[in-house]
Amino acid sequence: MNPSSIPALDTPESLPFDLMRVPGLGQLFRWRYARPLLQAPLLVLSLVMIGHGLFGPTLAPKNLATTLSWLHFRGVLVLVLLCAGNFFCLACPFMLVRQAARRFLRPRFTWPRPLRNKWLSVGLFVLILFTYELFDLWSSPWWTAWLIVAYFLTVLIVDGFFKHASFCKFVCPIGQFNFVASTLSPFEVKVREQDVCTRCHTKDCIRGRREPVSDLVTIRGCELALFLPSKVGNMDCTFCLDCVHACPHDNIGILSRLPASELIVDPIRSGIGYFSRRKDLAALAIVFTFGALLNAFGMVSPVYAVETWLGKMLHVSHEAPVLGLIFTFFLIVEPLLLLGLAAWLTRVWARSPRALLPLAVRYTYGLVPLGFGMWLAHYCFHFLTGLYTLIPVTQNAIASLGRPFLGEPRWTLTGLPANVVQVIEIGFLVLGFAGSLVVTYSLAEDDSPDKPLRAFLPWAAVCLVLWCASLWLMFQPMEMRAMLMSG
Amino acid sequence: MTLLVTQQMTGCSRPAKSPPVVEIEHAISPQPARVGAATVTLKLADATGKPIIGAHIAVEADMSHAGMSPLCAEAKEAEPGRYQAHLHFQMAGDWVILLHVTLPDGKKLERQIHVRGVRPGVQPN
Question: Chain B contact for A304, CB < 8 A?
Answer without folding.
Answer: yes
